[in-house]
Amino acid sequence: MKKMTRAVLISFLTLFGILTLQFQAFAEQSTLDIVKKRGYLNCIIGNSFVGFYTVDEKGEWSGMDIDICRAVAAAVFGDKTKAKFKSVQWAQSFTSIKSGAGDMLSKGMTWTLSRDTAQGLDFLDTYFYDGQGFMVRKDLGVTSALQLKGATVCVLTGTSSELNMTDFNRTHKLGMKPVVFDDSAVRNAAFFNNNCDAITNDRSGLAAARSSAANPSDYVVLPETISKEALSFAVRQNDSAWANVVKWTFAAMVEAEELGINSRNIDKIKSTTKNPIVKRFLGTEGDLHKGLGLKSDWAYQVVKQVGNYAEIYDRNLGPDTALALDRKGTLNELWTKGGLLYSKSFR
Ligand SMILES: N[C@@H](CCC(=O)N[C@@H](CS)C(=O)NCC(=O)O)C(=O)O
Known about the structure:
By secondary structure, the protein is an alpha/beta fold. It has two domains: about 30-130 and about 230-335, 3-Layer(aba) Sandwich (D-Maltodextrin-Binding Protein, domain 2), CATH 3.40.190.10; about 130-225, Periplasmic binding protein-like II (D-Maltodextrin-Binding Protein, domain 2, 3-Layer(aba) Sandwich). The chain contains 14 helices and twelve strands. A five-stranded mixed β-sheet has the order 9-8-10-7-11, sandwiched between helices. It has a three-stranded parallel β-sheet with strand order 4-1-5. Helix 3 (about 65-75) runs antiparallel to helix 13. The relative contact order is 0.14. Bound molecules: glutathione. Glutathione binds near residues 108, 156, 159, 161 and 201.
């Protein structure tokens, strides 16, 4: 009997040991290996945010965040179509990365200290610098957010928009009343149905909402910008092999713009250039790709298939789009033109 108990105990401990080792191996496995093995990338986005992530009647996604995910797929697989999009409500954003349901998150999310430290995320870079504003119906006759005394304001719960509005309200003693929603589509509908006097969000979010109104010219975005909103992409915390791939993919789009390389001229440049910086960037010289665990032409594939930063900006947010957000003179310009977009060195 004693022997039996010992045998059971030993098998139990062995099984426990094996399971622990397996769990450790999973925890230590980089998302890069998981993604490569799976054959596609899972990208976490939100409901719908015109210019950033939006789906058409054929189920085809487009937008700035969509292009960033497609660029990562192009870098890893040499094929931008190897990205799948999972649309989650705001409240599920963080857990979807922590649980492994998503490999990267790119959904108009602001990089903040608490999200970077206490939500299991590592933010990697900012792809759009924004700030929060207020929008009202023109016939309300309001020309400044400081006139919104006692106003009801539609806002998405859990967002920085909600917190900044509370600060602004307290600082200026406005007594505004937040009307909170956990679904952005319901929030927009409530505002357009006159259930709130104003709506508050990132200015890009307001432009997107306005573009979806039956009559956009009935609405006006007020002049105040009450916060800094650095819209940034993030991955699971403490996974630097994967973080490197995602952040250098974005850097490649910025670097390509600075080098004057785009999806249309890249083949010609590749076959004719004598510039060592460009050769290294395109992977025809050197072995930078090895450190990333990617093929030598990864940056070429990013630019050829998705484009440089200017191309993705113009296609999704530029003057010919529904948002018509002018890049000139903003922080979203390259550093060489006075903006904040600056790629670290490809060497
Ligand atoms: N950037 C802010 C606000 C986020 C937010 O409200 N996003 C807007 C667009 S700027 C939205 O409507 N998102 C829709 C969604 O993700 O479902 C934050 O990170 O908290």
